[in-house]
Amino acid sequence: MIRLPRLLAAGVVLAAVAGLSACAGTVSMDAAPNANDPACADVSVRLPQTIAGETRRWTDAQATGAWGDPSAILLTCGVAVPGPSTLSCQNVEGVDWLVDETDAPFYRFTTFGRTPAVEVYLDFDVVGSADTLRAVSPMLARQLVETGSVCTDRPGTDG
């Protein structure tokens, strides 16, 4: 009869170890101020499993996504909607993105003219912006409300 408690104890230890190892891959992030916007929930459930060959990882914050190990792509929904900016802007699959190169080789891309706003932070030593933004832009174009603002420095616009 002593075997049953030992087997139960062993099972509990194995379950605890398995649970801890599952948490080891979680990426710690901060939720944005407007992460509770219902559109961010729609974005979160539609994030791709892979981007530019990098696999999605669990995050510990609402309306966020991370890809790669270590993380090369971080996405946060619900960041402050940017106003007019002197940053360069590019259109990818119908979504305008402000490009902040301040921390190169880490680049910050923020949707422009959409609410809630989404930010994508990339490690350019690992992934490029073209593949990354093409992977998320079509979904964001469907999920985020257009505000009417567009980039004025992109080809084909009057500015």
TrEMBL record:
<dbReference type="Pfam" id="PF12028">
    <property type="entry name" value="DUF3515"/>
</dbReference>
<feature type="signal peptide">
    <location>
        <begin position="1"/>
        <end position="24"/>
    </location>
</feature>
<dbReference type="InterPro" id="IPR021903">
    <property type="entry name" value="DUF3515"/>
</dbReference>
<keyword id="KW-0732">Signal</keyword>
<protein>
    <submittedName>
        <fullName>DUF3515 family protein</fullName>
    </submittedName>
</protein>
